[in-house]
Amino acid sequence: MDSAMITTPSKNRASIWARNIFIGVLAFIILVFAALALIPDSTWRSLLVKVISAETNRTAAIAGETKVHLFSLHPSVAIGDFSLANADWIPDRPMIKVEHISATLSLVSLLRLHLVFPRVEIRSPDIDLERDKDGRANWDFTTPGARKPAPQRPSKAANLPAIQQFILSDGKLTAGDAVRKLKFKGEMVVAEHNGGSGETALHLHGAGVLNGKPFDLRVHGGPLLDVDPAKPYDFDAAVHAADIRLEAHAEVKHPFDLGSITSKFHLSGKDLADVYYLTALALPNTPPYDLSGTVVRDNLKFKVNDFKGRLGGSDIGGTVSIDADRDRPLLSADLRSALLNIEDLAAPLGTQASAENKADTLAQSKGQVSYTNPRSKAGKRARPTVAKADLQAKDTGFLLPDADLQVKRVRGMDADVNYEAESIHTEKMPIRKMRMRLRLDDGKISIDPLHFTLPEGQFSGTVAVNAKLDVPVTDLDMKLDHIDLAQIKSKGSADAPLGGQMVGRIRLHGTGSSVHKVAADATGDVTFVIPSGQIRSAFAELTGINVAKGLDLLLTKKEDKTEIGCGVASFRADDGDLKANALLLDTTHVLVTGGGDINLKDEGLHIDLRGKPKEMRVVRLRTPIEIRGTLAHPDIGLEPGHVLAQAGAAAALGTLLTPVAAVLAFVDGGLAKNANCAALIQQTEQSKGLPTALSSH
Can you tell me the distance from the alpha carbon of 266 to that of 309, in angstroms, rounded to the nearest whole number? Predict the structure, then answer.
């Protein structure tokens, strides 16, 4: 009882102190508002100009009236003819010029610390955004004229206060970005219109030209009048930029905190790499795409859990995430395809299969395009516009893609992508599965592993591209492991030209910005070995060699196949020229040898194959087989007028640039122990002592 009597006065005193403090704070606020209300509009104008100029390091100006009303439940401000100077390296036009800006603020929302603007109106804004090739951006308000490397680290996502009525009329936007090679000029309008039910709904329309092609943005949202910061706000958006089509339904969890948005999207177009102009992400070239998913944004982190769609004739799905809260955005993905069309892999390498390309391909396949050997006496080359196997730009004629890697884009982001295809459609080689992991780190690309699984055999390896250098440098190391040759058939043929297994290795180093340029500069080794197998009559169909003459080199008239003891094709690359180290094919009846080179600069072929019969034949062919043309359009046939002496094969064996044993060891150290290949090694060693006075020409 005594305790209660003692504490009660203390509680009363605390209550009185709290009431007095509240009254004092309220009185102070009223005095502040009263003082501010007495400030003339001209002083407000000078104050606003001074503050904005100090914050932006630019000269701000208000040429029209400035009106400020504070004694109201909805304090308001209105500014006329506002302008903000551009960066000092763009002196000929302002960055921002606005005819009229007005806004009202809910005083109750200010006290609740959740700002709500009942009305915001902007009339005739004219905005100019520029970034030059050195990365200077006029929206960077730090130090005037400061040079910063591009791309710059992004700022946090905007958390805008709730706006219950937003009107933007006659807006103009001009943007130029030399880093992203982007140019835009367009108009914007935002307004609310009464619907049939009496409700108002938000409509935003932006239209213009993006990189010389039409651009259109439309946003339709629910009524803003009753917007509540505690309740989600939905809107629909559609973007058409050239061939890019993006449609989305988005939900802002807390209007208008743009760092927390969930958006269901549908995206389609001709080449996913073009999305760079809208997102700054260095995505690969692709065939026409149609993709969808749900993006969940957490400030500067984005995640797509239900990503799916098609790239060309291939399906794709999985998870994708982007972390933009870094100096370089990081794209992480775990993707898979139930069916991959192998032709769709041509686009990421720089080869697009356009309708015009396919028309030229058909023309060449019908013999409408000819090729003259660049090493011929005439010295003139009529390179085919597009070869039968070539679906890239028709102005190159190369089989190897010659589209340049966009190094600036690659240097601007990082990536870690896992991809797996469960089955693969291809007309040329039966590939069952593919898997790869691509990593991009500070301009360095690595693909490790890159693995293809066939019904019988596999080929796998690694690719590394250093794009940090002025000219990218590429290293490739691929191995072929027990490839069953019976799997490889020409189109429309029931029989494979070759049987048995093949192993091999390709190890090349080159400098260049495209696949073709790297090959044209390449050094390294390319070797294929057939430890045992068969050549079938279908070989003539594959090569186009006359059956009556060409097959007599390898087969008797009673046989439709001949056994291969051991076959070796080895080339040494130097400055893009693949010179034959060893071309050997040991068959039942004939020992075939050869020489020549493949020039990867012009992709010209200059290979000769010669045969030495192992026993007396009814018809003995001593005319060599020549391979001419290009990689994209090879021409295989008999070389008339060049009769070989019997010592020709021995002479070729005696001048091998690399011993066969060393060639086999490059692929697999165990090949030298193979009985057939060991016999071939012995033949080449014995042949070195034979006379070589008689040559093949």
Answer: 9
> In the chain, helix, strand, coil percent, each to 5?
20, 40, 40
Q: Do the bridges between strand 330-337 and strand 289-298 make them parallel or antiparallel, or are there none, so unpaired? A: unpaired
Rounded Cα distance between 107 and 1, Å, is 47
For residue 390, pLDDT over 80 is answered with no
Indicate the DSSP class of residue 325.
Answer: S
Is the Cα dihedral 513, 514, 520, 522 positive or negative? Answer: positive
Return the structure tokens found at 43: 């002083």
- In sign, the C-alpha dihedral spanning 206, 211, 214, 220 is negative
- Quick check: 637 pLDDT over 60? yes
Which pLDDT band holds residue 551 (cuts at 50, 70, 90)?
very low
Q: What is the DSSP string of 208-229?
A: EEETTEEEEEEEEE--STT--T
Identify the CA nearest to 119 among candidates 64, 79, 74, 73: 74
What HEC string does 578-637 produce?
EEEEEEEEEECCEEEEEEEEEECCCCEEEEEEEEEECCCCCCCCCCCEEEEEECCCEEEE
Q: Which two tokens stand for residue 521?
A: 């500069």
Element (H, E) at 685: helix 675-687
CB atoms within 10 A of CB 272: 22
What is the mean pLDDT of the segment spanning 556-583? 84
Q: What residue ranges do the domains of the chain occupy?
A: 469-697
Residue 643 has pLDDT above 50, yes or no: no
Residue 424 contacts residue 414 (beta carbons within 8 Å) = no
Per-residue pLDDT tens for 312-363? 999 999 999 999 989 899 999 999 999 999 888 877 876 554 333 333 333 3
- The Cα–Cα gap between 273 and 481 comes to 34
Q: What is the Cα–Cα distance from 469 to 99, expressed in whole angstroms?
A: 48
Single-letter amino acid, residue 129: L
Q: What is the CA radius of gyration of the chain?
A: 37
Residue type at 36?
A: L
Nearest to 282 by CA among 469, 417, 137, 138: 417
Span 429-436, mean pLDDT? 86
Whether residue 156 has pLDDT greater than 70: no
